[in-house]
Amino acid sequence: MKRKVVVFAVVLGMVFLSMSCKGTKTSIVVGAKDFTEQDILGNMVYLLIEAHTDLKVEYKHEMSSNVVFAAIKSGDIDMYIDYTGTVYGNYLGYSEMKGAEAIYAIVVQALKDQYDLLMLEPLGFNNTYTLSVRKDIAEQYGLKTYSDLAKVSQDLTLGATFEVLNRNDGIPNLKKTYDMSFKSEKAIDGTLRYTAIAKDEIQVTDAFSTDGLLMEYDLVVLEDDKQFFPPYYAAPVIRAQTAEKYPEVQNLLRKLSNILDDATMRELNYHVDVLKESPTETARNFLKARGLI
């Protein structure tokens, strides 16, 4: 009888040990920022890993740039998609204008050396910042470039995200470069910028070049004639420790290399912001169409 009890106890212990190991299985945490494009891209990463590995995947989004960067440095997330210009200007504090390839090379080296983070090959599109106005404002003031805007900026109200109003690579240094001085500046996040400019509550807004709502609201994108904004090529960033532990994940992320151009990304954003598809649905449909899941 004692032998049976001992055997049963050993078997039961093995079961509990197995359950415990499963319960404490390390998760891969995918992060994303707090706007439509980032949610689509974050879902692409999440769905790709979920479809091709047995890893438990968590998805954390709705973070600002500085918050998501702090999260990957601390290990709260393992990977996310960022932009070369954001890393170059906002995180690393560089201001000298360089070409896209030079900025990418600097960013890759600095992330590895300073933070033990790997930036992989870009996804293919350049989501740079723009300043946009309605067509009637462009016609009224003869606006084609940022330099044109600078001449009449004192008569116009700017509505921009809180982040770009305060970033090193944002509005403060842009105003210095172009000697701009707006009548007033309002912090307006997300799609509210577009409804505000449509209602003439603001006359100028920041936008990303791949925003689907630029199409919906038929806005005029002004030319950055002094090339203040650096290139913002989207690329995966992953903790080196995570890449070493899960090489299959790094290989999966490489499948996203050069898979998107500006027009395609703008269309995906349009599907979410205008056609009201969910970011998850949009990401899944794109990955399926490309044969990735």
Can you put this structure into words, describing what you see?
- The structure is a single chain.
- The protein has 293 residues and is of the alpha/beta class.
- It has 2 domains: 27-126 and 232-289, 3-Layer(aba) Sandwich (D-Maltodextrin-Binding Protein, domain 2); 129-221, Osmoprotection protein (prox), domain 2 (D-Maltodextrin-Binding Protein, domain 2).
- It contains 15 helices and 10 strands.
- It has a 5-stranded mixed β-sheet. A 3-stranded antiparallel β-sheet has the order 3-10-4, sandwiched between helices.
- Helix 2 (36-52) packs across helix 15 (279-289) and helix 4 (84-91) packs across helix 5 (100-115).
- The radius of gyration is 23 Å and the shape is globular.
- Mean pLDDT is 90; it is low at 1-25.
Estimate nothing, just give the exact number of structural domains. Answer: 2
CATH-level-4 superfamily name of the largest domain: Periplasmic binding protein-like II
Mean pLDDT: 90
Helix-strand topology string: HEHEHEHHEEHHEHHEHEHEEHHHH
Strand order of the largest sheet: 7-6-8-5-9
- Radius of gyration, Cα only, in angstroms? 23 Å
Which keywords apply here?
D-Maltodextrin-Binding Protein, domain 2, 3-stranded antiparallel beta sheet, alpha/beta, 293 residues, 2 domains, disordered N terminus, 5-stranded mixed beta sheet, single chain, 15 helices, 51% helix
